[in-house]
Design goal:
single chain, 257 residues, four-stranded mixed beta sheet, alpha+beta
């Protein structure tokens, strides 16, 4: 079958009046944020997703992805309480150009869910490669139920997922010999697969320092360490100064939003 080509969307970005015009990516450890600044890249990781709502015989699967949210700053604290107080934000226009996609929250009582289930079950019975199978798998990567079990290192909790306002980047691992979907029994670790992604720079999402809108750190001490890191980068005086202005300190900011 002839491969379809896609011309990237070139229309100007229309600013949102309801959600943030930035995409925020949070993490729990300062080291992860500093590594991203040092590498000027985001690296996908296999994240475990609860798929029990799909009733496909696998209660959880791992996807190679980077997660973002477009929550307005004055509402973002509950999200940070879950995902960490270290973050980096880019313009939504940048994210759209990188192929980052808002996910679809699906009502399991809806006709859409029922139709998807029927189509998915039928497509998975096809043994050969199929555009239908590819489409349904890709759709699954960008889909969550309205509410369900949130899997985390702190334990699994019930959550209303629509509060997360989630966008995702899914890495295309087809050409590098790493599985796009992983499944493992209880106790399965995705570490070796994440290590493989770290070595495969073609899967990284690079950015320019000028693309960054905000860098969020938890404390003033963190900010001083970040400034020291930026001072070590091969940047002009002007570029360093511009990065400094993008640092937000959460322990100060949260008092005023």
């Amino acid at each position: 079958m002839e491969k379809l080509t896609h011309t990237p969307e070139s229309t100007p970005y229309i600013k949102s009046e309801q959600s943030a015009n930035s995409l925020f990516h949070f993490m729990r450890e300062k080291k992860f944020l500093f590594d991203k600044i040092r590498d000027s890249a985001l690296i996908p990781r296999y994240c475990e997703e609860d798929t029990s709502y799909l009733d496909i015989g696998k209660n959880s699967l791992f996807y190679p992805m980077i997660c973002f949210c477009d929550i307005n700053m004055h509402n973002i604290e509950p999200h940070m309480n879950t995902y960490g107080y270290y973050g980096i934000a880019f313009s939504k226009k940048w994210g759209i150009e990188k192929g980052i996609q808002p996910i679809n929250y699906i009502n399991t009582n809806s006709p859409k869910y029922n139709d998807y289930k029927i189509a998915f079950d039928e497509a998975m019975s096809i043994t050969e490669r199929s555009p239908l199978k590819n489409y349904l798998l890709t759709t699954m990567f960008y889909m969550k139920p309205l509410q369900g079990i949130n899997i985390s290192k702190d334990g699994n909790i019930e959550k209303n997922f629509t509060d997360e306002c989630e966008w995702r980047y899914i890495a295309n691992t087809d050409d590098v010999g790493i599985g796009k979907v992983l499944y493992g029994k209880e106790g399965f670790s995705s570490k070796k697969y994440n290590d493989a992604i770290e070595l495969e720079k073609s899967l990284w999402v690079p950015f320019k320092y000028s693309d960054i809108k905000y860098i969020i750190v938890a404390t003033r001490t963190d900010a001083l360490e970040l400034i020291s890191l930026i001072d070590e980068l091969s940047l002009s005086v002007k570029e360093r100064a511009q990065l400094f202005t993008k640092i937000l300190i959460w322990e100060d900011l949260k008092e005023d939003i």
